[in-house]
Amino acid sequence: MLEGEAYHWHHKIMLKSARTGGAFNWHQDFGYWQKNGNVLFPYMASCMIAVNRTTKINGCLQALAGSHHIGLIQHERVNSQQTADADRVAAAVERLPLVHLELEPGSGVFFHCNLLHRSDPNDSDEPRWTLICCYNAARNDPYRDSHHPRYTPLARLEDDEVLRIGRAQWERMTERGA
Length: 178
Hints:
Order of helices and strands: EEHEEEEHEEEEH
Structural class: alpha+beta
CATH superfamily: q2cbj1_9rhob like domain
Number of strands: 10
Largest sheet: 4 strands, antiparallel
Helix content: 10-25%
Number of domains: 1
């Protein structure tokens, strides 16, 4: 999806409590990340994993299919949220299919950082929790420091080395009575 090596950018858990979880306006994640992450290119994506069921009633994610091809839309601050330009969003809503991402627990969906998405409040008696893991392409390293990490390559270990390290850690833990 990101056409090359990628690394973990950040993650968060979205907790929409029953009858109280708030709504999110139409936005693109790159609308935030290009400003506060100091990255130049939209070589970024997210994976949203349902912790419990996500439905229309409990405020599941909504997306405009294919909207990532529009490119970055100007964003402005509206009630503490970065929100995509309303005129462009209205034009996209007229032309692109709206998809409600209803998911079962453990199911996930990957989406590009320029995908227009939003969610409604949680009007159900059940919570709506999702884990969102975000990734950046290694070639899109931030051009200056921010609170987001830079790319750091990981050393690849053979399976037997991983097992050896795991066994050694297990033995140390059992010796201490952990």
